[in-house]
Amino acid sequence: MNATTSTNTSPATTGAPGLTPVTVIGLGLMGSALAAALLDAGHPTTVWNRSPEKAKPLADRGAHVAATPEDAVAASGLVIACVLDYDALHTVLDPVAEAGALAGKSLVNLTSGSPEQADEMARWAASHGADYLDGGIMTTPPGVGSPEMMFLYSGPEAVFEAHRTPLAALGDPLHLGTEPGLASLYDSALLGLMWASFTGWLHGTALVTSEGTAASAEAFTRIALRWLNGAVSGFLTTYAPQVDAARYPGDDATVDVQIAAIDHLIHAARARGIDNALPELLKATMERAAAAGHGGDSYASVVEVLRGARG
What we know:
By secondary structure, the chain is of the alpha/beta class. It has helices at residues 29-40, 56-60, 69-74, 86-98, 115-127, 157-162, 164-168, 182-208, 217-245, 255-271, 277-294, 302-307; strands at 22-25, 45-48, 64-65, 78-81, 106-109, 131-137, 150-154, 172-175. Helix 4 (86-98) links the parallel strand 4 and strand 5. It is elongated and about 65 Å long. The relative contact order is 0.08.
């Protein structure tokens, strides 16, 4: 059997009885992981990729390999797309849509992009008679299929509920709302949080493992995780309603207090030759908040400075 054919002549009858047939378009690392998770859950799975040799491991596990995007879309009512970018997505699906083959299908787009691209894609799908969900994958390929990993979706709730079972095979499916761009917006925001957290952890690791200390990255990380999971998560849950209400009572630690405290971090890092770009940026942002009248407010008031960059 070569990579462009399959012994499965009827993809809708492959897999566990009664489970939704699903088509996966795009077999990069992530797309292949998505298809594998669906196969593991027993869903009849059809796959297509521009480079058909990538489909062979999935074909060997029972996937039906479609010869063309048209055949792939025709095989299932639920089509999951995960390709390089939106240009690639349109290159694959525009001819299918123009032929009327998307009508009546549900398209779940897990291609990375902006909220604005998701909004445009939802309009495009509707114009071709297809239901549309946009999605954000909050894990790397090895995590696909784990119920601990979040998959974010936005779009019509009825479409989400209709396909909850196959979506749950990929990870924990969370519906954020009906606006198509919400999943992409959350995805970007959560990645920003991840990178800021990673960099803050690495700055702290560099500081405590600097020359002359006996500390290790593993030892620091054990303490850091306790701090993050305890006190820091508590601050977040306290500050969230303050942000929603735009009221920032400074009854725990004010912005002025935080400015004084971060000076100690900057001094310690400078004395040890550690790059201070991140804490200097944080201090400058705090100082802007204080200059805007929030010196006596909680740290949550810094959001007003960040929002001030809009427009």
